[in-house]
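Checklist before submission:
- one chain only
- standard amino acids only
- sequence pasted in full

Submission:
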Amino acid sequence: MVKSQREYNNQGLPDSLQCVKKLEAAGFTRAQAEAQAETFLTILKELVTKKDLKETIRETKSELTQEIKAVEFKLSQEIKAVDSKLSQEIKAVDFKVNQEIKVIEFKIEVLRRDLKIWFGGSLASLVLVLSGITTFLAHLIH
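Returned file contents:
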């Protein structure tokens, strides 16, 4: 059965006068009908309505949306800070690696120079020894 608008007040609750009239029509005394209607309406006021639920859901969604945005912003800031710190650390490591590479390259050049000197000295010594042997053999033959 569809209820008419005048059977409800502006809070969406049944009209107390209409409740009393219906209870009287059902055989209740005026005092009984008023007590029943008052009790019934007091209970209904404490119940959660669909409108209440929708409003609570809307408010909760709004609060959650704000919280999510705040968390996203905070995470974004933290990610930027970590990214900046990592970039600085990578640059520091890169600098150290480049310094180590330069030290190693220098040591390689020193070793290369030392090898040339050693090889050149060995070659000169070998030439002197061969020259000495040649001279010695030449004296033996003559």
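Reviewer check: Residues 1-47 form one domain.
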